[in-house]
Amino acid sequence: MKKQKGFTLIELMIVVAIIGTLSAIAIPAYQNYVSRSEAASGLGTLKALITPAELFIQESGDLETTTTLDNIGTTGQANSLGAVTISAQNTLMFEFNATSSINGETFTLERDPDTGWGCTASATMPDVDGCS
């Protein structure tokens, strides 16, 4: 009698079950990783503007909503994940757009004359070092 070679149906079903279980664990972890990395990118874009904004404030008095972003050496679309704006006096904001997984979330940098620049994040923003 000739010996058959190959896998049985049960063996193939076990492999498919193992792959499904690993995928069920890996996909949410990957999505969390992507959200955190996008948040870090947006925060990095915003924090890179602290020095030019501070120089502008020292030379011109205040960073107003009428101040153009060109005056601090950037554009509103410096990062493809969102837009930088001057949202209030001495306040910079980065809002994520639809191309990111955290659409609508924001980081805000506000300058206090006594304590310097402080960062706040919207309530559902993923945890990122450097901003609460």
Automatic annotation (TrEMBL):
Gene Ontology CC terms: type IV pilus
One Pfam entry name: Pilin
InterPro entries: N_methyl_site, Pilin, Pilin-like
Keywords for the protein's UniProt record, in alphabetical order: Fimbrium, Membrane, Methylation, Transmembrane, Transmembrane helix
TM annotation in the entry: 12-30
GO biological process: cell adhesion; type IV pilus-dependent motility
UniProt cross-references to NCBIfam families, sorted A to Z: IV_pilin_GFxxxE
Family according to the record: Belongs to the N-Me-Phe pilin family.
Protein name: Pilin
Organism: Photobacterium sanctipauli
